[in-house]
Amino acid sequence: MRKYHRWLSVLFGVFLLWIAVTGVMSQFADIVAESERPAAAAVPAGFACPATMICRPKPAPDGARAWVGYLHHLHSGEEFGPVGTAISIVSGIVMIFFSFSGLWMYIQMWRNRSARGVKPGWFWG
Questions:
Q1: Which parts of the chain are beta strand (E)?
Q2: Is pLDDT above 80 for 100?
Q3: Angstrom distances, CA of residue 112 to CA of 17, 98, 104, 120, 121
Q4: N or C: which end of the chain has fewer CB within 10 A?
Q5: Is the residue at 110 inside a domain?
Q6: Alpha-carbon separation of residue 15 from 4, 77, 81, 95 (angstroms)
Q7: Cα separation of 106 and 89, whole Å?
Q8: Count of the separate structural domains present in the chain
Q9: C-alpha distances in angstroms, 34 versus 11, 30, 43, 71, 89?
Q10: 106 falls within a domain
Q11: Residue 12: is it exposed, middle or buried by C-beta count within 10 angstroms (0-12/13-18/19+)?
Q12: 3 domain-assigned
């Protein structure tokens, strides 16, 4: 399991770092865009808003709001076409694998320490 964990981390480390950084930047840009959003305008006279919808004007894609869309496209790989999207999907699957394999390796180390008679702690050196 360690061999696969190690090799996949070498291959996908850059992509996972890309996804993490653009995801954080996208969230930060969304927070900035939300704070710059003007108060909701009144609904025009004669317009009946359906009960299933929230009626508020769509924000103009300028300033920080434009960055949110661009960063989302970078984060999801859409900016690089079908290949970017495929790499993003595979990177997500690899991230799930890292989570499970890392937990599995931790449990194995815990069991090995316990079998040797060493008191297993949560973290050890």
A1: none
A2: yes
A3: 32, 21, 12, 9, 12
A4: C
A5: no
A6: 17, 10, 15, 10
A7: 26
A8: 1
A9: 36, 6, 20, 15, 28
A10: no
A11: buried
A12: yes
16, 96 contact by CB (below 8 A): no
Within a domain: residue 71? yes
Q: How far is CA 68 from the centre of its chain?
A: 14
- Joined tokens for residue 121: 């702690």
- Determine phi and psi for 76, rounding to 5 degrees: -85, -10
Domain enclosing residue 7, as ranges: 1-36+60-93
Q: Is 20 helix (H, G, I), strand (E, B) or coil?
A: helix
Question: What's the whole-number mean pLDDT along residues 12-31?
Answer: 82
Please give the structure tokens belonging to residue 16: 């996972």
Token pair for residue 124? 């050890």
How far CA 78 is from CA of 5, 58, 110, in Å, comes to: 27, 23, 41
